[in-house]
Fold:
Amino acid sequence: MSGTQTSVRDPHGRAPSSSPVSLPPGTQPPWLIVTLREVLVKAKDRGFAISTMITLVLIVAGVVFNAFMANRGEDFTVMVTSDAGQAVIQLADEAGRADDGNVTFTAVTADDDDGALEQVRTEDADAALLQESDGIWTLTGKNEVSTGLAQQVGESLDAYVLDQNAAAAGTTGEDLLAGSELEESLLEGSAENQLLATIAGFIFSFLFYMASIIFGMAIANSVVEEKQNRVVEILATAIPIRQLLYGKVLGNTILAMVQLALYGGAALLALNLTDTADLVGSIIPASGWFMVFFLFGFLILAAIWAVLGSLASRPEDLTSNSAPVMALIFAALFAGLFASGQLLVVASYVPVVSSVAMPIRMLNSPVALWEPLLSLVIALAAAVALLHLGEKIYRRAVMQSGGALTLRKALKLEQ
Amino acid sequence: MLQVRNLTRRFGENTAVDNVSFTIPSGKMTGFVGANGAGKTTTMRMIMGVLTAHAGDVLVDGRPITAADRATFGYMPEERGLYPKQPILDQLIYLGQLHRMTASDARAQAEELLERFQLGGRGKDKLESLSLGNQQRVQIAASLLHRPSVLILDEPFSGLDPVAVDSMVELLRDRTDQGVPVLFSSHQLDLVDRLCDNLVVLQQGRLVASGSGDDLRAKAPRRHRLSVSPDAGWVREEKGVTVIDVAGQEAVLELENDDAAQHLLAAAMARGSVQEFSRIRPSLSEIYREVSQ
Structure:
């Protein structure tokens, strides 16, 4: 080969044998090389880059669209033919401006009912508010009457008629309604936070679900690829097989966390830019906890996926033997979507499921600090135990060629 | 020098490798031959530590082998395969780094090897886009990249065209010139003849012969070819002579000792003219055929 090779090694070219961990200068520990490769290969994968970009765009577009819909004012033009009608629309306009400040009503007076309806038909007006001779009011739209319009006009008509009737009885509407006001309040949080918690819970559940499958599958596929191609025999002679497993788990965990942070960051940035951030403050602590729980839950799943990969002999085997881990991932998803009460409390301590359940609990109601910490300790213990067990199975199974293995068979194998 | 001592491996009831011992001397090419299922691959996998031995051990310069030793070996497994969907240069660098090379050293070495295999411009191509023969060359490059201290190659020549075989031989000669022991299995006996200084023959898990070519030839039966006129049929009656084959004027004979040879020659000259009387030097492939019958 080249003339340079004689200088470093002894005549047999053998490195010192006593310390496999000692590294020549300028080289990296094997697990780090494996980790970097996992990350680089995935980052260079065009499909992965495109799907990440599309998801990012969808997240930002979703936030912007929501903000646009929330801020968008509505202007209703309503045809009337009487002073009473005009007064009702006037009331509706006042109420609309008072509520969010962005719903307005304009009354346009027509000469007669037909003229009013004609304006609706030509879409010059949104609806016509007409009173028939027997006193019954009708709100007529072209082919629909928007709910916002109907509701506000209905309420204003109530108030108007109440006032009229009260005046006829020698009193006022306000007096008649005195003492009937009902205020809603919540013991914990506020209604707005509750809605936000539900939405955030959905998002947490789906992010965990997606990352568990995308990056979990990536680990399993990368293991089975090496096993199928027998590269693993070369790798096993070069480095301890444990380091290969850790490198893969770590690499994909980093990818999953970076992607999660990217998605979360994009959503927060978009929320800030669109000035809808005032409510976001309340979900930030829970989001931080979610990142931590995500990490621990993902480590557990990563160990399981790696074992599944080592048991398979072809990528096709993965579809059939991944049922248990898919069940676990679905459990986490459904706990996030539907669990409440005692069930949610229990779920928040079950490893993997807790990754979604605990942050959601923390969104819904105050949770003492020891609870997430305890849940994390349980998840960490499970992660360590599973990585350990996973390493044992992986080491045995990954060298076996031939058909797919069962867990029991793999544990009985000798290397 | 690498020694294999009493290696044994069973798969269930079947003993795939049974108490096998042999030596792979430094700076020599050792051919590893035997029929399919003789236990060659199992032995190589045990040497590489991919498979656990049920008995026996592997020694490097007289001491038990360690994982650190194996990390400096070059290994080409029986079933080929690197990463089909990765560019070839990238994966060679990766493997080099795992073998404790720096990234830049691994790159330089990989580029040089690819150049030698006429794959210089294809470093960025995915492995699967190469022809099978070229994939094989990349596989060889992967096993040589980190300047291995020992080479264990399972059927390294299968699937190579003659030009690639020559480049491969040249590379291996470079390694043995540096003192590296090379063990390679092959079914191509002509190559074994051409390349090997040493031979190890397995049959159904058992060692049937091992040693240098000269040793094996010395142990082989001493055969002579005799070509006389008018006819060689009379040799059947000679003492100390075992006839392997007689046809017309030609005979292949096994002679007990030098006296028998001298006697036979004198007899032949007395009966007519002698065109040829020579010692047959058996090729390694003939020895292989002989011992594995």
Q: What stands out?
A: The two ends of chain A are 35 Å apart (CA to CA).
